[in-house]
Design a protein that fits this description.
The chain is mainly alpha-helical and 228 residues long. It contains 5 helices and 3 strands, in the order βββααααα.
Length: 228
């Protein structure tokens, strides 16, 4: 069986042909390369050695060993070769900047929505205030999440345009826009959570849309990280 490697995400497929689409990142069949290791030929038995008489003229003078060639420098990790911030971009990818920053909204956003619904059910003003603060942190962190995700996308996946990355980018934009919209809404009208209003249903629906977009982006991100 042959082994095929996705040049976008590194997924290894075993089979006679590469898959039509990478199950991890969604890259097309053309992005796979054959990485099957050739079988090593069986070693041939060495012929018996025969003694050979050599004269002193057969031994040249020992010369100084040639200096070892300097190892070639590895290719730079980042595609931003001409950018003055190339070192920063490489460091962000090396130390997993995007997975770290994305944990901020992933942890706070479900808590914020839970507090909103509990506050609406039981009229707990303290939970409504806590939801507002949590949602504010989510909104403030999303620009950094989008930026670190863009750097990771360029460095690790060469900016490949596949269905997976399109969905992740779209979901990230939806979470950012809805988080800022809801946060500003709560600052202007904090009573929308605990007081019956015509726009209350729309407020709750937008929260659910934001949660769905964040969950979808997280699910696809997990596929890229846990490939096995």
């Amino acid at each position: 069986m042959k082994k095929w490697k996705c040049t976008v995400c590194g997924y290894i497929h075993t089979g006679d042909e590469p898959p039509e689409k990478c199950p991890v990142c969604g890259a097309p069949k053309s992005k796979f390369i054959d990485v099957t290791e050739p079988e090593a030929p069986a070693p041939k038995p060495a012929p018996p050695a025969t003694p050979e008489i050599r004269s002193a003229a057969d031994f040249p003078e020992i010369s100084e060993p040639a200096a070892a060639a300097a190892p070639a420098e590895p290719e730079p990790l980042s595609p931003f070769k001409d950018s003055r911030y190339r070192g920063l971009f490489d460091m962000m990818t090396k130390f997993h900047g995007h997975p770290i920053t994305v944990h901020i909204p992933n942890g706070l956003l479900p808590v914020s929505i839970l507090f909103i619904f509990l506050s609406a059910l039981f009229s707990i003003n303290g939970m409504a205030s806590a939801a507002t603060y949590n949602l504010g942190v989510v909104a403030l962190s999303m620009p950094l999440v989008l930026f670190s995700g863009w750097v990771d996308w360029q460095n690790r996946f060469n900016g490949a345009i596949t269905d997976v990355f399109i969905v992740k980018i779209a979901c990230g934009i939806v979470v950012t826009v809805t988080a800022w919209f809801l946060f500003i809404w709560l600052l202007v009208n904090p009573a929308v959570i605990t007081t019956p209003q015509p726009s209350r249903v729309a407020f709750f629906m937008i929260n659910l849309i934001m949660l769905g977009a964040a969950s979808t982006a997280g699910w696809y991100g997990g596929k890229l990280v846990f490939r096995d």
